[in-house]
Structures are given as structure tokens and as C-alpha cells.
Write a structure and sequence with these properties.
Layout: H1 4-7, H2 18-25, H3 32-36, E1 42-45, E2 60-76, E3 79-87, E4 92-98, H4 103-106, E5 112-122, E6 125-135, E7 147-150, H5 159-173, H6 183-188, H7 194-202, H8 207-238, H9 250-258, H10 265-279, E8 285-290, H11 296-309, E9 313-317, H12 321-336, E10 342-345, H13 351-363, E11 368-371, E12 385-390, H14 398-405, E13 412-417, H15 423-429, E14 434-438, E15 449-453, H16 458-470, E16 474-478, H17 486-502, E17 509-513, H18 519-531, E18 534-539, E19 552-557, H19 565-572, E20 583-587, H20 593-604, H21 608-619, H22 644-660, H23 667-680
Parallel strand pairs: 4-6, 8-13, 8-14, 9-11, 9-12, 10-11, 12-13, 15-20, 16-18, 16-19, 17-18, 19-20
Antiparallel strand pairs: 1-7, 2-3, 2-5, 3-4, 5-6
This protein binds adenosine-5'-diphosphate and magnesium ion.
């Protein structure tokens, strides 16, 4: 944020000391601006105060009254119930707290309070199990008698404290910040000015005001983002690369000749687009989209071969070691036949090997390298890096994507993703990239037969694996692993693999793969699975992206209701990679309607776009961080799927502005540029000011 007040540390607020500042940092709040942009997750309507006697049993109510007396009850060891008698003007009710005896020191007799809590009426008395309270000191209340903001919290900070903190920050502003949005735009779209919007977003007078404020911040966020894209696009279209490609030659002909299949129509179409781009003077900057299994790898290989033929170097970056290694093995196999060498660089590469590899890249002796983000390390340099390919790009930040490019001099950049994003949205989201889509799967692919079954049907699923293994096939069993319960989850996977190896599958090899294993162990397991020695691989989601072992035809997903739809779709994409019929068994006993609906969607369709839409529908527009699972970048307040309309407007306005004043020379636009840098500056090159 460009305004000095907003840039100040939260510690400039007098109720924030080092301890509280540290707590706030945990949720990304460093400055006063960060705090004010920590928007409520929702509002609770506490506009209507009711007398305690009129509250509905079981509901949540807010009551105002005067404290009469307090009492501690200790019904059993470790439990203290603090009970306050409160008079609300028409009668007495009781407010109860559990294990918070200090309350009676704060709410002493005679004090006026607002109490919000769950209503319990019995024997003619009304009791509120307190969820929230506030002392009524005669000033405007933050927690009662209004729409009350509910925030995402951090440790040692409760809702009430957060409200007070934000209120204090708002008071500090005191009408002194400038709006960086151009006045014209504010008027055209009737957006509230920043100061008012901040007040209304936190403590709205009415629902309508809250909505208008939110709209402003959504617009603001998307507008700035679109401006950044416009600037990048401007720089790319105006730049000229200083490497050239020679026409397609023998390497490509041979490579294609050796392929055991013909390119699909979709592949040929995108290849033409990419190839034509390479021949242009400006760098290629393209997103290659294609559902799981569409065959993006072949296209990236052909692109890299054109670079090699032209005497240029090319680097392919993948998000996981397993995937990098897979690409390396596949490329080595395919390229050995045509005499092209390739290197592998990951975090697991040994020191000696690494040194040699780096030396050969620096001299240009080695043309092709595959790796993880290890490629981004400072000492990795190229003699002439002409092409950068990023696989499963949604797994990387914009920053990392750009970083590899900086190792060359305006290299061509191809990024690939299997995240199904509707085209209009993709255009808007990746406004700085051209887009190619492989819109068909290779021929002969049957949709994966998908079933959702209860845990007690697991033996049947296991016998399906046995059948397939007897036919020479292989199988995955995927176990969920979430951070909060990582230890337990990991143990479940280990136990399952041990149990299967000792019992059901004792006559063939069962392997175990998870993220906590050492790189060499992972490699070893993948190698044995790839070779077909291991028949059944019990794994956590480390196999989620990109893994390609066409001989695997069964996947069992345990506790499938714990996965999001996008993730289930990615996982299932690991089977059905050949002409053989494949199966996916979702084992779960879903506890929620949403969980059930997800599984049903999976059994009904294998179309990534349909699933993406279903995902959006299920999670509903209220979800703040709804984009996480679909692999789209995360915004603070905007939701790209929900806010499509605002996104469109933001894009149009951003493009118009970038046309009018491409270098942000006007004083009004300079403020905008400063804000863009502050928010998206890291890793994004916003030159031109
Ligand atoms: P993704 O697009 O998910 O990265 P891959 O590139 O890994 O997919 O390809 C999936 C599988 O399909 C691979 O085993 C690949 O060899 C195979 N494949 C790719 N193109 C074709 C094609 N035109 N015909 C048949 N099989 C193909
Ligand atoms: Mg892939």
C-alpha cells in the first residue's frame, strides 16, 4: 500500500506489542494496511436485541442487560462454570462461561453488557451459553446491536479483540489516506472510496454497504492484477528475442517417426501454434492446456527438440522430484535413439554430479536439462537458454515461473497445465499468455470406470486389483494425508501397505511411497513400480500430478470424501492412460452431503471442465479461498470463479488504461503503479516507470 499510514507496522497501534504483532504475523498481518485488509469472513446479524424471555430455545441471541451477581460452580474436577445473573429490563437471565473464571472480574455487578450465546430454557429460566460478550460503555458497540464482523483469527486473539484492534486502526487513519484508484473509475462504477469502504467492510451500517465495500476491494484486487498482466504483455510484445530457430529438421522427423503412435488432431493443432510462435521474432509466451492424459509431454519434447536443432539450450521444470525424474527417464529413453543427451537436476542430485552438470550447462555442451525448482538456484547458469518449459505450472508461483526465464535472455516460455479452466477465464487470468488447448484425448481411451463404495466393500476392491495384477496390470492405492493429522495419516498408509503385503497380496510386491521418504528411496520405489516389479503401490498424494505409468489400471482411493474434486480428478488421471479399461474405486463413508455429492460427480463424469464447474457449484460462492483446490492463484478477497463479471470489467479497464498511459506517467497513474508494485511486485517485473 502506497499510503504511509497503511505501510506502518501494526506495532504503531498502541495496543499492539511485540507478542501480539508476532501472533498477527502468523496470518500474514505485518502492517496497518494488512490489518485493515484482513476482511471479515462473514457478518453476524445482531441488530435485533431481544429480551431474554423472548429468545427461542436452541437459537443464538444477543441480549443487553445489567450484571447483578456472579457465582462459580465446580461440578467436577477441571471444570469451572461461571454463572452471571443479568437483568435485561424485563427479567433475569443467566449467562454461563466454561473455565473462564476471570470473567467475573471483568463483568462486575452494575456493569451493562451485551451477551451473545446459545439459548437454553428450562424450568422457566433462560440461560445463555456465552459465545461473545461486550461491555456496553455507552459508546458505539462493535459486537452487538449491529452487523458484527466475524474474522479468521490467530492464536491469542479472539473475535472481540480483533474487532477492537481493527476499529482502532480505522480510527488512526482518520481520513488521511488517498485513494489510488483513478477517480474516473470510482465514479463510473459507483465504488465507495477506500476509507469509507474500509469502515463499511468491517463495521457495515447495513448489508448493502458491506456488499458495496466488498465489491470495491474485489475490483481493486482484480484491477491491479490485470494491470500487472497488461504491463507484462506490453513488455513481451515489444521485446525481440536474440535467438533464432532453424526450420524443423531431422531430429524432429526422427523423433516423430519413432513415436509408437500418431499425434492426435488436438496435438497437431497446438504444435502448429507453438512452432509458428518459435519462428517469430518476439518470444513465445504460451499456456498449453490439456486435461490429464491429453499428451502434453510429447508437445513439450518436440518444442525442446526444435531448440536443440537450432543450437539452443532448453530447460524443463516440474513441481515434484518424482515428476522431474519421470520426465527425465522418458526423455532419455526417447532421445537416446536420436543422439540427444539430457541432464537431471533436483534437490537429490549428488554434489559431484551436480557440479559436472552445471559446468556442462554453463559451457553449452549439454543442451537439455530437466529438474525441479533446484534449477532456480543461483549457481545454475546456461550458455544460451532459448526455451523454458514449466510443467503443471499451477504448482509454481508466478515468481518461480519468471525466475527460470531470467536465466536466459528473453527465452521462449511454454507453461503447461491440466487445470481445467473455462477458456474465457483462462484468457483473463493468464492475460499475458497466449493459450493453446489440446481438446481431445488420444484415441481408444475408455473413460475410467468409477465406483463409490463403502469401506466394508474394500475386500471386493482388492480382489479387482488381484484380477488386474493377474492380467499383468498394476494398481495404486491412495491414502489421504492432510497436514493437521499428518502423523496419523502417514501411519495409516504404512499400516495398510504392511497389512496388504502380509495378507491379501503376499504373493506379489507391494510398495509404499510418501513425501517423508528420502529422495533415493522414492526414486527406488518409482523405478521398481515403473519396471513392473512392484504390482501395488500404496501412496499418499505425492503421485497426484503428472505421474504416467500406463500399465496401471486400477486406483483405489481411501477415504475419498476427504479429497476435493479437483484433486480426485488429478488422482484418477493416473489411470486410464492406455487403451486398456481402467478402474477407480472411491472408498468412503461420507459424513456430509457435499462429500457425497463430490463422489457422485466423480462417478458420473470424467470431464475435467464439468468437474471444475461442479466443484464451484458445490462449494458455493461464499467460499473465500475457493480457488485453492482448482490450482488458480489465490487472492485475498476476489474469487475468480465467483467474481467473473467484475474480473471482466477489471480487465477491460486495465487494458484501456495501459493503452492510454502504458508507462504510468500521469500522476494519478503513478499511485496505481506504486500499489501494483507493493502488491504484486515480488518477482514480477514491472518496468517502465
Ligand atoms: P499429460 O497431458 O497428462 O501430461 P502425457 O503427456 O503424460 O499426458 O501423456 C499421457 C499418455 O498418453 C502417455 O503415456 C503418452 O505416451 C500417451 N500419448 C500421448 N500422445 C498420444 C497419442 N497421440 N496417441 C496415443 N498415446 C499418446
Ligand atoms: Mg503431464
Amino acid at each position: 500500500m502506497n499510503n504511509n499510514l497503511l505501510m506502518k507496522s501494526v506495532q504503531s497501534i498502541n495496543t499492539v506489542g511485540p507478542r501480539r504483532a508476532a501472533s498477527l504475523q502468523r496470518i500474514g498481518i505485518f502492517t496497518v494496511g494488512d490489518l485493515l485488509y484482513h476482511f471479515p469472513r462473514r457478518y453476524e446479524d445482531r441488530t435485533r436485541l431481544s429480551p431474554a424471555g423472548a429468545c427461542a430455545q436452541g437459537g443464538i441471541a444477543t441480549v443487553r442487560g445489567t450484571v447483578l451477581a456472579s457465582q462459580d460452580l465446580k461440578p467436577k474436577p477441571g471444570l469451572v462454570i461461571t454463572k452471571l445473573a443479568v437483568h435485561d429490563g424485563s427479567g433475569v437471565f443467566y449467562a454461563v462461561w466454561f473455565n473462564q473464571p476471570f470473567i467475573k472480574k471483568i463483568l462486575t455487578p452494575g456493569k451493562n453488557v451485551y451477551i451473545t450465546g446459545k439459548v437454553d430454557r428450562s424450568y422457566g429460566a433462560t440461560q445463555l451459553a456465552v459465545e461473545d460478550y461486550e461491555v456496553d460503555d455507552g459508546s458505539d458497540s462493535l459486537s452487538a446491536g449491529r452487523l458484527v464482523p466475524i474474522y479468521a483469527l490467530t492464536e491469542r486473539l479472539n473475535q472481540r479483540q480483533m474487532r477492537v484492534l481493527i476499529k482502532t486502526a480505522l480510527t488512526v487513519l482518520n481520513n488521511q489516506i488517498n485513494d489510488f484508484l483513478p477517480g474516473e473509475i470510482i465514479e463510473k462504477y459507483h465504488l465507495p472510496r477506500v476509507e469509507r469502504a474500509l469502515c463499511q467492510a468491517h463495521f457495515p451500517d447495513r448489508e448493502k454497504e458491506a456488499a458495496a465495500a466488498r465489491k470495491r476491494f474485489i475490483f481493486e484486487e482484480l484491477f491491479l492484477f490485470q494491470l500487472v498482466l497488461a504491463v507484462r504483455k506490453r513488455d513481451i510484445t515489444r521485446s525481440e528475442k536474440n535467438h533464432r530457430y532453424v526450420p524443423e529438421g531431422n531430429l524432429l522427423r526422427l523423433y516423430q517417426k519413432n513415436l509408437p503412435f500418431q499425434l492426435t488432431g488436438g496435438q497437431r493443432k497446438v504444435w502448429e501454434e507453438i512452432s509458428a510462435d518459435l519462428d517469430r521474432p518476439r518470444p513465445l509466451h504460451r499456456l498449453l492446456q490439456g486435461d490429464v492424459g491429453a499428451g502434453k509431454t510429447v508437445i513439450s519434447t518436440m518444442t525442446m527438440l526444435r531448440a536443440v536443432e537450432s543450437g539452443l539450450q532448453a530447460a524443463l521444470m516440474a513441481p515434484t522430484e518424482i515428476l522431474a525424474e519421470q520426465h527425465y527417464l522418458g526423455l532419455r529413453r526417447d532421445l537416446a535413439a536420436i543422439g540427444v543427451e539430457i541432464g537431471l537436476l533436483t534437490g537429490a542430485t549428488r554434489k559431484k554430479e551436480r557440479e559436472l552438470l552445471l559446468a556442462r550447462l554453463a559451457t553449452g555442451e549439454l543442451k537439455l536439462v530437466v529438474g525441479t525448482h533446484a534449477l532456480l538456484q543461483g549457481d545454475v547458469s546456461f550458455q544460451k537458454l532459448g526455451l523454458v518449459v514449466v510443467d503443471e505450472q499451477h504448482r509454481f508461483g508466478v515468481r518461480q515461473r519468471a525466475a527460470l526465464g531470467h536465466k536466459g535472455n528473453l527465452p521462449d516460455t511454454l507453461v503447461m497445465t491440466a487445470t481445467p479452466i473455462p477458456r474465457t477465464l483462462a484468457l483473463t487470468l493468464y492475460g499475458d499468455l497466449d493459450i493453446s488447448i489440446i481438446d481431445e484425448l488420444p484415441p481408444g481411451r475408455n473413460p475410467v470406470k468409477t465406483y463409490a463404495v463403502l469401506p466394508r466393500a474394500l475386500p471386493k476392491a482388492l480382489s479387482l486389483i488381484r484380477e488386474q495384477v493377474n492380467l499383468g496390470r498394476q494398481a495404486y492405492i491412495v491414502c489421504p494425508l492432510v497436514e493437521e493429522s499428518e502423523k496419523i495419516d502417514l501411519q495409516a498408509a504404512v499400516d495398510l501397505s504392511v497389512d496388504l503385503a502380509a495378507n491379501d497380496f503376499k504373493d506379489f510386491q507391494v510398495g509404499l511411497l510418501h513425501g517423508r521418504m528420502k529422495s533415493v528411496e522414492k526414486e527406488e520405489i518409482m523405478l521398481r513400480f515403473r519396471r513392473g516389479d512392484i504390482k501395488v503401490l500404496v501412496s499418499t498424494t505425492v503421485i497426484e500430478v503428472g505421474v504416467d505409468i500406463p500399465n496401471a489400471t486400477v486406483m483405489i482411493i481411501m477415504d475419498a470424501d476427504r479429497f476435493g474434486l479437483a484433486q480426485l480428478h488429478q488422482l484418477r488421471g493416473r489411470v486410464g492412460r492406455s487403451e486398456r479399461q481402467s478402474y477407480c474405486i472411491l472408498v468412503a463413508n461420507p459424513k456430509t452431503d457435499e462429500g457425497r455429492a463430490r463422489l457422485r460427480a466423480m462417478t458420473r463424469t470424467s470431464d475435467g471442465f464439468v468437474l471444475a464447474e461442479e466443484d464451484l457449484r458445490l462449494r458455493g460462492p461464499g467460499e473465500f479461498h475457493g480457488t485453492r483446490q482448482s490450482g488458480l492463484p489465490e487472492f485475498k478477497i476476489a474469487d475468480l470463479l465467483r467474481d467473473g463479471k467484475i474480473l471482466q470489467i477489471a480487465r477491460e479497464e486495465a487494458q484501456a488504461l495501459a493503452q492510454r498511459d502504458p508507462y504510468f506517467k500521469s500522476s494519478e497513474n503513478r499511485a496505481l503503479l506504486a500499489e501494483m508494485k507493493a502488491r504484486f511486485g515480488e518477482g514480477i517485473d514491472i518496468s517502465g516507470a
